[in-house]
Amino acid sequence: MNITFEYANSNSREYLELLSINKLHKLKTKYPSLKKADFFFKIDNEIKTYKYCGIRLSTPNSRIFASSNNHKFDKAIEETICNLEELLEKNNETNS
């Protein structure tokens, strides 16, 4: 799987990448058709406590995107992965 990371105003790169890859691995195990993941991390300039995580996943047939804000990056990643899992589940139901 091809994974890319983009950052804006964030210095926690190694930690975020390890955490993201770990969470993504669980999703990839459940949905082996995943081919690519793009992660976007940002700390809000005006409200420094807001951490943004966006993830775009590519499968052979589609692309899906989800994002969330939280006071901690690990929670934002977790929420975004949960949102993506729901979207993948819906996608599987419509393609079945």
> What integer value in Å does the Rg equal?
13 Å
- Work out the strand percent: 25-35%
User: Tell me, what is the CATH class?
Assistant: Alpha Beta
Number of helical stretches of at least 4 residues: 2
Order of helices and strands: EHEEEH
Classified in CATH, the superfamily is Ribosome hibernation promotion factor-like
What separation lies between the terminal Cα atoms? Answer: 24 Å
- Topology, number of strands: 4
**What is the CATH fold-level name?**
Double Stranded RNA Binding Domain
Helical proportion?
A: 40-55%
Uncertain regions spanning at least 5 consecutive residues? none
The biggest beta sheet is recorded as: 4 strands, mixed
Specify the structural class.
alpha+beta
The average pLDDT value, as a whole number, equals: 91
* Domain count: 1
Architecture (CATH level 2) name: 2-Layer Sandwich
The shape is elongated
Strand numbers in spatial order across the main sheet: 1-2-3-4
Protein name: Putative sigma-54 modulation protein
Give a nutshell description of this structure.
By secondary structure, the protein is an alpha+beta fold. It has helices at 13-30, 73-95; strands at 2-8, 36-43, 51-58, 63-70.
Structure commentary:
It is built from 2 helices and 4 strands, in the order E-H-E-E-E-H. It is α+β, with helices and mostly antiparallel strands. The protein has one domain (2-95): Double Stranded RNA Binding Domain, CATH 3.30.160. Strands 1-2-3-4 form a 4-stranded mixed β-sheet, with helices on one face. Helix 1 runs parallel beside helix 2. The protein is elongated and about 45 Å long.
